[in-house]
C-alpha cells in the first residue's frame, strides 16, 4: 500500500513524539541487495555506521518523504511511497523477522523499516541531501503541499491555468505541481471532483478548479483525521480507518452516486478506476 502525504505526516509526527532526543546505538540490515542494486538504498551500507551515537534532533515529513535529522551531521531519509512499514518497538521482543533496516536506540527501544515495494532508505550527510532525488522532489519549496498555508485556491488555480497537461501528470509524479500524491490519492480526488483523468488542467473552468482544490483538501484532511487509509498501519501498528472512494476496491462495483458500473482505464503508466457517468 502506498504511503502518501497523509500517512507520511502521521508517521513523522508519531516518530517525532516517540524518538526525538533518542541516541542511535546500533543498526543492522536484512535482504537489501535488491534495494541497493536498483538505487533504493545506499550502495555502501557502511555509511549507516555514521548514524551511530547521533541523537535525533527532529523528524519531519513533506510529501511522501520522512526526514530524520541527527545532531552529528547525518540524516536518515525514508520514502516508502509505493509501500512500506515503519514500526516502533519498546524492546526486541516485538521486532518482526522481516525488515530492511533495524535501528537500536541507547534506551533499548527499536525502530524497524521495511519497503514492500518501490521506495527509499538512505543515510546521508548534511551536504548530500541535495543529491537525494526524493528529498529534492518533496522538500522543494517551489512545489505546493496540500497541508501548507501557501496552498491557496488562488495559487493552485494559477498553476492549473498555466499547465496544458492531463490531470494525472499535473497532480502525480516528477513534474507534478504538488507533492505527496500518488495514483491512489489521484483516483479518489478526481472522483470526488467529478473529473475525467484525461482532462487537461488548463481547460478546467473556475468551478471545476474549485472542485478539484476542495477534493484534494478533503481527501488529505479525512485521511489525517482517520489515521490514514484502511490498509495503512501507523508507527504502533494501529490500522487506518479511511476507505478510498475510488480505486481497486471499487472493481466490479456500481458508482454509489449514480449506479453506473465502475470502469478500469489504462492511463499514465498505470490504471485508473472511474465512473464514466459522473466523471466527464
Written overview of the protein:
By secondary structure, this protein is of the alpha+beta class. It has two domains: 5-125, MutM-like, N-terminal (N-terminal domain of MutM-like DNA repair proteins, Alpha-Beta Barrel); 153-274, Helicase, Ruva Protein, domain 3. Helices cover 25% and strands 21% of the residues. The chain is built from seven helices and ten strands. The chain has helices at residues 5-19, 33-37, 133-138, 153-161, 167-171, 183-193, 206-225; strands spanning 24-29, 56-62, 65-70, 74-79, 84-89, 101-105, 110-115, 120-125, 263-267, 270-274. A four-stranded antiparallel sheet has the order 1-6-7-5, with helices on one face. Helix 1 runs parallel beside helix 7 (206-225), helix 4 (153-161) crosses helix 7 (206-225) and helix 6 (183-193) packs across helix 7.
Query: So what's the CATH class of the largest domain?
Result: Mainly Alpha
Distance separating the two termini: 28 Å
Overall mean pLDDT: 94
The gross shape turns out to be globular
Count of structural domains:
2
Which residues form runs of ≥5 with pLDDT under 50?
A: none
The overall strand count is 10
Q: Which H/E pattern describes the elements? A: HEHEEEEEEEHHHHHEE
CATH topology of the largest domain: Helicase, Ruva Protein, domain 3
How many whole angstroms does the radius of gyration measure?
Answer: 20 Å
What's the tally of helices? 7
Amino acid at each position: 500500500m502506498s504511503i502518501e502525504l497523509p500517512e507520511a505526516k502521521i508517521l513523522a509526527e508519531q516518530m517525532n513524539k516517540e524518538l526525538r532526543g533518542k541516541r542511535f546505538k546500533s543498526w543492522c540490515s536484512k535482504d537489501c541487495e535488491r534495494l541497493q542494486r536498483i538505487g533504493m538504498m545506499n550502495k555502501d551500507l557502511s555509511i549507516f555506521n555514521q548514524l551511530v551515537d547521533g541523537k535525533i534532533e527532529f523528524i519531519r515529513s513533506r510529501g511522501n518523504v520522512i526526514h530524520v535529522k541527527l545532531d552529528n551531521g547525518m540524516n536518515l531519509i525514508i520514502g516508502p511511497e509505493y509501500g512500506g512499514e515503519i514500526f516502533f518497538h519498546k524492546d526486541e521482543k516485538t521486532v518482526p523477522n522481516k525488515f530492511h533496516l533495524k535501528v537500536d536506540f541507547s534506551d533499548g527501544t527499536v525502530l524497524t523499516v521495511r519497503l514492500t515495494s518501490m521506495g527509499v532508505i538512505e543515510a546521508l550527510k548534511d551536504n548530500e541531501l541535495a543529491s537525494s532525488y526524493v528529498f529534492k522532489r518533496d522538500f522543494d519549496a517551489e512545489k505546493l503541499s496540500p497541508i501548507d498555508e501557501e496552498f491557496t485556491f488562488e495559487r493552485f488555480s494559477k498553476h492549473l491555468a498555466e499547465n496544458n497537461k492531463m490531470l494525472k501528470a499535473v497532480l502525480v509524479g516528477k513534474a507534478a505541481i504538488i507533492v505527496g500524491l500518488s495514483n491512489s490519492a489521484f483516483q479518489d480526488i478526481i472522483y470526488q471532483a467529478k473529473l475525467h483523468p484525461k482532462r487537461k488542467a488548463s481547460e478546467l473552468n473556475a468551478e471545476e478548479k474549485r472542485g478539484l482544490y476542495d477534493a484534494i483538501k478533503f481527501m488529505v484532511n479525512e485521511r489525517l483525521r482517520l489515521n490514514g487509509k484502511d490498509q495503512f498501519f501507523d508507527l504502533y501498528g494501529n490500522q487506518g480507518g479511511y476507505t478510498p472512494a475510488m480505486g481497486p476496491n471499487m472493481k466490479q462495483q456500481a458508482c454509489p452516486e449514480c449506479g453506473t458500473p465502475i470502469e478500469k482505464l489504462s492511463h499514465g503508466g498505470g490504471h485508473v478506476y472511474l465512473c464514466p457517468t459522473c466523471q466527464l
